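Design request, C-alpha cells follow.
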C-alpha cells in the first residue's frame, strides 16, 4: 500500500508539478524552497528526484504559483493543489 501511495505522488509530481516548476523563474523556486539553485535545476531537468519533504514543498510552491496565475486571468482556482496545477496546465495548453 505504501508503494502505491508513493507512486501516485511521484506520478503527480512528474505530470503536474514539474511542468509548472519549469515555467517558473528559478529564483522564485530557490527563494521559496531554500534549495540550492543547482539542485532546483537538476530537479527541473528530471535528473534528480527530490526527497519527500522537498517534493511536498515544491508541490506547494508550484500550486501557489498556478493559483496566482489563474487569479491574474480572473479564473477561480480550486483549493486542491493537484486540481489547481491541472487547471493551470490546461489553460496554458489552450492559450
Amino acid at each position: 500500500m505504501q508503494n502505491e501511495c508513493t507512486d501516485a505522488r511521484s506520478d503527480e509530481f512528474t505530470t503536474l508539478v514539474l511542468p509548472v516548476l519549469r515555467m517558473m523563474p528559478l529564483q522564485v523556486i530557490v527563494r521559496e524552497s531554500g534549495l540550492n539553485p543547482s539542485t532546483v535545476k537538476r530537479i527541473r531537468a528530471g535528473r534528480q528526484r527530490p526527497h519527500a519533504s522537498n517534493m511536498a514543498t515544491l508541490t506547494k510552491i508550484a500550486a501557489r504559483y498556478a493559483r496566482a496565475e489563474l487569479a491574474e486571468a480572473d479564473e477561480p482556482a480550486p483549493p486542491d493543489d493537484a486540481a489547481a496545477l491541472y487547471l493551470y496546465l490546461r489553460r496554458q495548453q489552450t492559450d
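Comment from the thread starter after seeing the answer: thanks! The CA atoms of residues 20 and 89 lie 7 Å apart.
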